[in-house]
Amino acid sequence: MTQKISRRRLIASLGAGAGGLLLPGCDRIGRSDTFRALDEAAQGLTMRAQRLVTDRTALAREYAPGDMSPTFRTNGNVLPRSPAYLAHLRTGFADWRLVVDGLVARPLALSLERLRRLPARTQITRHDCVEGWSAIGQWTGVPLKLLLDGAGLRPEARYIVFHCADDFRGRPYYESIDLIDAFHPQTILAWGMNGAPLPTGHGAPLRLRVERQLGYKHAKFVMRVEAVASFDHIHRGRGGYWEDAARYQWYAGI
Amino acid sequence: MTAVTVAAQHEVEPAPPRGGDIVVRHRLSTRIWHWLNALTVIIMLMSGLMIFNAHPRLYWGEYGANADHAWLEIRGDPSRGYLRVGALIVPTTGVLGHWRDRDGSLRLRAFPYWATIPSGYDLAGARAWHFLFAWLLVVPGLLYWAWSLANRHVQRDLAPRRAELSPRHIWHDIKSHARLRFPTGEAALRYNILQKASYLAVLFVLLPLIVLTGLAMSPAMDAAWPWLVDLFGGRQSARSIHFIVAMLLLAFILVHLVMVVLAGPVNEIRSMITGRYRLPKERAQ
Questions:
Q1: Residue A252 belongs to some domain of the structure
Q2: In this predicted complex, what is the ipTM?
Q3: What CATH number did the domain enclosing A124 receive?
Q4: CATH number of the domain located at residue range(s) B20-55+122-278 in this protein
Q5: Do A134 and A236 reside in the same domain of the chain?
Q6: Would you say B192 and B183 are in contact if contact means Cβ atoms under 8 Å apart?
Q7: pTM: predicted TM-score of the whole model, two decimal places
Q8: Is the peptide bond before A205 cis (omega within 30 degrees of 0)?
Q9: Partner-chain residue, chosen from B43, B62, B265, that has the shortest CB–CB distance to A67
Q10: Least confident among A1-5, A235-239, B51-55, B219-223
């Protein structure tokens, strides 16, 4: 009997000790360079494995109008603070231009009217937030491919960066995708949502839809589309606001 | 002469092991996979709870967000914390939804710091842990599956025999477990029907389910394999099933640990490290 109690005591103290060591240990390991290198390797492996089993043009599911969420919540910034943006909002974006530049042969500056007259794609898709929730909504906009073809990508271009009007504590929102997603048929710059002009809370005048990735890649309030060879020199170099600020994974297919 | 030799050869067949004998119990493949999984599954569970903390509500169907009905949620306000499942509300103040951090400050997140990796709110950090260790769950898991089917560990040691499936036999095993009377001597070498059922359920039901529901939450995988999300009735259903299966795996681990302690932790843990196991002595001795 005494032996049993001591055994149990041993295990209990081992368990408490392991728990006590494990947690701060994991926090420390999680911040180490080795762990971050392993994380990057695993992310690369995940992206390559997903790309391996996914056709480049495999479409995200499109739903019927009856499948849509009754309420599509907003998140992130719902109203940029910049005076320039607020001025455009007051004038209905009449003098606003979307800039397409960077590694392109013919930089573009397109008005919202012009964008709305370009061939549009309408898709009812599911928006999956990294936090775990999902909402189904309808998006209408110009396929990014049309703009990139119009501007003519230079051969060095590898990524497309989306510069936004909103910011968190003075640090502007931005995102980036590679050319596989940039030329995907469902990748659009949406100016309409659920049959109406894109609401401010969802990113007016333009919001990126990149349907095979999580919500934080879907940049709102897009002002400028820049083709780059690398995003190392942009802000903190991790390819997006959340990637820089909170080490969100650049590839958000999972 | 020849006949005698043959007879003698028959006689040197080893006698069945008895209580007190040391026998080789677990194969190397089982031992390596066990300890790798012990680490992997705990990290997956704890990082998963942190991911859950980012949106502590579960839904059925394809979509689900704050305005939609959640069948399960963990909530906290400055006065209390509670878990709601359907219409049932369970007060959880101090543990879920309302708990004190290491420095004593009140937090209203769902799972407390001691249950999550990382211990402070960090969705991206938890996802880094979760998706790194997911590879360590899936790749060795598939190898173990293949290896254990090839060396007939599954068929020989885990597949129930016809006689074991009789309700009488199962009832008898449940009663012995409830009385904490575990098999002794040679009988302890074989898994009993409750062990077989739980190991088979973990190996061939829970682990595949948790991996497939995990993949079904990935928007890229849903584009590649649309059937995957349909299999579970929608992305939010897949997320709910993922959580339920995680809780079942946690329950398995807790019962498993209790059984190890009751059956003699030193002998059991040694057998999973070195493979050698001392057969429990027969009760008559």
A1: no
A2: 0.90
A3: 3.90.420.10
A4: 1.20.950.20
A5: yes
A6: yes
A7: 0.91
A8: yes
A9: B62
A10: A1-5
